[in-house]
Design a protein that fits this description.
By secondary structure, this protein is mostly helical. The chain contains 15 helices and no strands. It is about 70% helix and about 0% strand. It starts with a helix and ends with a helix.
Length: about 230
Amino acid sequence: MTGNEGEHLFRLARDRSAAGRRALVAAVGDLLFERQEELTDRERTLMTEILRRLIHEVEMEVREALAQRLAREPSAPHELIVLLANDRIEVAHPILLHSEVLDDEDLVEIIHHRTLEHQLAIAMRREVSERVADALVERGDVGVIKALLENPQARLSEAALAYLVEESRRVDTYQNPLLHRPELSPELARRMYGWVSTALRRHIIERFRIDPRTLDRHLAVTSAMLAR
């Protein structure tokens, strides 16, 4: 960073107005992410700290712009990304959806302490680990779980799938996405045969190559046992 740039930042830092804070965030962001290879480790650390402190002082529009800028930046400072991810959903959304800087521990913490909108954005991430998916399922919101089931890049544990198969008895919206999950086993699909629609029963038969007579016999035996 040149002397002129340092003096410019110093002048902006002395300006306590909203416009001055916006200009300072923009200037630090430019230096940190457009010229980061030219900065020393100390300069990079100081810039990150400046942004972290300013986050609480600038209006949401500025935070939104910063989040949009950092969401796809793999070298973005972890502490800053976590701070933005825990902000209001208008700010957090691009970070939760795209940032690779967030790890599973960050995401699980957000799932447990932030809003349903935060959970929904996480459910729609390009990649969702089993640990994160389990945390979303545990929270139990139908809309979030449906979005998770419809995300082909989400990884669901066997335990989560078995639980959601049972839940699909009462939550119809789980049935179709569940039956299109690549990791769904034939055994779990057979369980669903007893309560899904005719169209989905046909899908089970065709996808898993199961003799419908076998499923019908299984259904008849189950019904008879329940009637006792």
